[in-house]
Design goal:
Three copies of one chain form a homotrimer. In chain A, a hairpin with a 2-residue loop joins β5 and β6. Chain A has a five-stranded antiparallel sheet, with helices on one face. Chain A is built from three helices and eight strands. By secondary structure, the first copy, chain A, is of the alpha+beta class. The longest helix of chain A is centred in the middle third of the chain and has 14 residues. Chain A is elongated and about 50 Å long. In chain A, about 55% of the residues are buried. Chains in contact: A-B, A-C, B-C.
Chain lengths: ~130, ~130, ~130
């Protein structure tokens, strides 16, 4: 199977969840040795990013800076009150790719893949596809 | 045909234009049932993003926040005066991907694909490619 | 060969390095006429973007705005002191794609591909893959 999805259940309003293991599992399920993994967030107040996974303080700093640079007091029109979360989603992006070699994700030494929750807690999902080549 | 382009004519200095229908049309033209759609903006003061399309206030809020966080009074060197537009382009990104299953773009319930004009109005284009897999 | 990497040695703390020639060389090495090029930065304090390459002032303006909007005085937890660099990496993104037609990258007239150094100078690398289709 070369395409499917997995669940990410977040537990805070803003949270980075390390999904590297699920991403590698997706590659294993696909049976593809060489190709590209595509991850996609089907949500409008969440994103996907790759950053340092060794020190959890980095994730906290990133969330803190997002809250600092996106104003909470701007005269937002959107009545749901979560426009800052939508902005963070656009700044982060809904998709990412990782190159696969020998059945393994070609991440750098310190890199981990994160699901970025900006309007949780919620039950989220990540869709994926692997293309061989 | 698995690659082509379509036009987006913007009507304001900053504007999000919903291009989901053109993107789905590209997939239909390709004849590909399962694969990945790549969209690419060949411009340096525009971008592509996926966000909520139901309430147009979200798009207005995103444009408002971009204008709030990118300073207009910074001592920019670039003589054309559109450095904030270039910055927004880099923050948004020039390309995006959407997974295709059964000939349909696999977008979330509230997701729409937007061309992001940051230095209009202009006649723009979006190039696309579909790879089966 | 459809996948490999190349080096980028940066010479400043923050710097955009034009890697368009290396990217085109990667396409030539792959021998692929029609497909997609994937570029990936395996680093957590660097990114990849596409923007104007004609006037180097644009690159300087982008770096200046990054330093303006990401606070340096925020109470960062990460002890290495480079949390702003990590934030810039997430805002820029670790990967990008370019469509290939007739063996050539389909970039816009003013577009160039940049490696974005946010915590240099360092010896960096960019990994790439080409998929035909």
């Amino acid at each position: 199977m070369h395409a499917s999805k997995f669940s990410v259940n977040t537990t805070a309003h803003m949270q980075f969840v390390d999904i590297t293991a699920q991403a590698q599992q997706a590659v294993s399920e696909s049976g593809v040795n060489d190709g590209v993994l595509y991850l996609f967030s089907p949500h409008t107040t969440a994103g996907l990013t790759i950053n340092e996974g060794c020190d959890p303080d980095v994730q906290q700093d990133l969330l803190g800076v997002f809250q600092t640079i996106i104003p909470s007091s701007y005269p937002y029109r959107h009545a749901e009150g979560n426009s800052p979360s939508h902005m963070m989603a656009t700044l982060t992006g809904s998709s990412l790719i990782v190159i696969i070699t020998g059945g393994k994700l070609q991440l750098g030494t310190w890199q981990r893949i994160f699901f970025c929750e900006y309007d949780g807690p919620r039950n989220r999902k990540v869709t994926w596809k692997v293309i061989a080549g």
